[in-house]
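Field reference: sequence -> structure
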Amino acid sequence: MIKGLKICGVSDPITLNFILNHNNRPLLTMIGFITNYEKSQRFIKYEKLKDLINVDKKKVKFISVLVNPTDKTLEKIKDLNFDYYQLYDVSPERTKNIKFKYKKKIITAITVSSKNDVIKYKDFSNISDIILFDSKGYHKSESFDHSLLDGVPHEINKMIAGNIQIDDIPNFKNKSFIIDISGALEDKNGKKDIAKIDKLLNLFTKI
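Structure field:
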């Protein structure tokens, strides 16, 4: 059974409000905001981000997506309206320090192209609330072989990304994953498409 949904790369108030007020969003709904990775077209500058997420979240979880964040970045965002930090390229020791210093739940992102990448979850399983298995593409919405995750224990709280399309969702209905989706919800210009988000959220009520 799919455990929840994360819509990543939200960067404007119209899209955010549409998700927050949608009648069919899953019980566990997460929204990711690209906080410090400027190479991404979904990156949001601090002042805009601060205003964007200063809302009633309506039980939706807000996630700060961070790639190897500096201490300066972490201090700057520490009082923003986030529930989780999603960390890429951060060592286990630093992950632990960030978690306890800033009192945030942690999603550790592991980028996957082989089985050797997958097993890195073992270094983070005791300090992360969720392990995200993503592609090597970061902001490019690339795919990876999801069957590589078959050996990951059921008790690990798993999130899965990697160019997942809306029509792929029913294929995960017997998997205990949180689905992380971004690029499939965008138009040809890379902007979030309300109609696609609506289709995705309505689909979840049928799974």
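Note: The chain has one domain: 4-204.
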